[in-house]
Every structure is written in C-alpha cells, then in structure tokens.
Amino acid sequence: MELTTLRHFVAIAREGHVTRAARTMGVSQPALSAMLRKLEIELDAKLLHRTARGVELTEAGKVFAQHAEEAIRRAEAGIRAVKELQGLEQGSIRIGGGATATTFLLPPVISAIRKSHPGLRFYVREDGSSSVADAVLSGELDLGIVTLPVLHPQADRLHKIPLASDELRLIVPPAHELAASHHFRWTDLQSQSVVAFEGGSAVRDLIDRAAAAAGVALNVVMELRSIESIRRMVTAGIGVGFVSRFALRSDEGLTCKDARLERRLAIVRLRDREPTPAGAMFEKMLLETVAKG
Questions:
Q1: How far, CA to CA in Å, does 41 sit from each of 35, 55, 71, 186?
Q2: Count of C-beta atoms within a 10 Å radius of residue 288
Q3: Exposed (0-12), middle (13-18) or buried (19+): which is 46, by Cβ within 10 Å?
Q4: Which of 48, 44, 53 is nearest to 32 (CA)?
Q5: Which domains does the chain have, with CATH numbers?
Q6: What is the number of other CB atoms lying within 10 angstroms of the CB of residue 36?
C-alpha cells in the first residue's frame, strides 16, 4: 500500500467529503473514488458510509484512519531523519571567530566532529567580532563566535548564546621586572612598550578603555592579529602584550590587580533561521567542550 493512498484516505476522513478531499489533494474526484474502491477491496472492508452531506467513517474506517495517520507521521519522521543524517554526513559548516576562537576553541571541536562525521566540510574565517557578525547577518557564515556586546545596527536579528567568560592576561618577556609576578597594575605599564592586537578589534578596544579609565596611555609599538605572533614578539623582548587565558596555561600570565580584564564570548546565528543538523550538532559540542574547560 503506497503512502499516497494513506494520505488520500486521511484527507477524505478529515474533509468528510470526497469532492472536497480531491480538491485539497489536487486530484480528480473520479480518481479519488477509484482509489477508495481499490482500498476497500484490498482491506475487504467498507470504510465509508455515504450521507446527504458527504461521507462518514465506518467503524473499520475509523480504525484504519487512526493507523493511517500514525503511519504517515512515522514515514515523515523517517524522511526527516534521513535528511538530517545526510546533512551530517555530507553537509558543511561555515564558522567565523577571532584569533582566540579559531586558534584555541574550534580545533578540538572540529577534530572530534570530523572523527564521527568525516564527510562534513568546514569553512573557518578568522576575523574581528564586527566582521563576523556582519557575515552571519548576510548569510556568508552559519555561526560566529564574537565578543559581546555585538555593536551592529542589526544586532537584534542575531540569536546570542553565551559561550564563555574570557580573561585577558598580560604576558611579559622572560627577563622583565614583572616576570615573577602574578598581577600587574596599569601604572606598571606607563612607560612600557606594548605589542597589541590590531586597532578596532573588540579585544583592543577593551584593553584601551581599561587603560584610559586608569589614566594610562599605552605605548603601542606593534599591532598584530595573531596570538602566536604576539607571544613570539613578547618573548623576543619587543614589549609586553595581552592574550586570552585560553592561550595560556593556568599558571601563565598576569591578572590586572586594578580590575580583571574580562570579556564575554557568545555564539551568534540568525534568529529567524533554524540551524542545519550539522550546525546544531557543532553548536552543542562547542558549548559542551568549552564548559568542560
């Protein structure tokens, strides 16, 4: 028995009228009547009583209608499951984030997903929070990892999912006077050369505002986007720098004693668009992985 036959019979049962059901299903009334006769012969039971107003289900018809609806629901669920499986096996995920996200948060998650779903393809863009948010809004990216708040005119179109609290810590050259310390004050940096993230980035804005609030003007001698480049420049003695706690061991880096330098990271995606099966799986695994630390 074909699924189409079940759909047609359910339509008749719901409409209580063969002609109306035929119109609803986009078939002719004679074709629907012929289908009904064939179905009754196959089941060896009368399914409908004809009345002045249309048709009514017999007891056999009521029982069959219940099972037909259940069969349709199960078949549709099966179709959705297959499509979701295809999305996980052959789909793609487009993600954007800053240096911290792409260098330290994404690799272990992508690696784990690739092991279980090797057919999935990943596109990863490293960019600042504003550019990532803009790419998600335009549909270029499925997901983004950004620093909150999202400063964009259409930020209300984004669904924001809290991901982690990130502390920015100071790193210094090995022979620096603060090398043995665990904390620093902004006044300690008054005359220091600073290797900084590029201007306009969310991290740079956070650092500049915190320093200015403490009355300190940072002497930025170099601007970089890469965390590893900042670390190498600092190790080479060019200056001090700030990086995410995710880039450091738990015992590395100096915490600001005046006030902790913290930012909130979030996953963003379009509010009015359901994530793909692959995107939903990635989002869930990223949240779980970061929560475990």
A1: 10, 18, 20, 88
A2: 11
A3: exposed
A4: 48
A5: 3-88 (1.10.10.10), 91-165+265-292 (3.40.190.10), 166-262 (3.40.190.290)
A6: 19
- The CA distance from 169 to 257, in Å, is 11
Element (H, E) at 41: helix 29-43
What one-letter code names the amino acid at 55? V
* Least reliable range by pLDDT among 3-7, 94-98, 123-127, 249-253: 3-7
Give the C-alpha separation, 30 to 123, whole Å: 53
Q: Is 88 helix (H, G, I), strand (E, B) or coil?
A: helix
pTM of the predicted model as reported, rounded to 2 decimal places? 0.68
Q: Which of 53-62, 104-113, 138-147, 241-250 has the lowest mean pLDDT?
A: 53-62
Q: Which residues pair with 55 in a beta bridge?
A: 50
Peptide bond into 149 cis (omega under 30): yes
* CA–CA separation, 188 and 164 (whole Å): 28
pLDDT at 257: 94
Query: What amino acid occupies position 181?
Result: S
Instruction: State the pairing for strand pair 158-171/240-244.
Output: antiparallel
Is 240:176 a contact under the CB 8 Å cutoff?
yes
Burial class (CB in 10 A: 0-12, 13-18, 19+), 26: exposed
Could you give the CA distance from residue 169 to residue 159 in angstroms, rounded to a whole number? 29
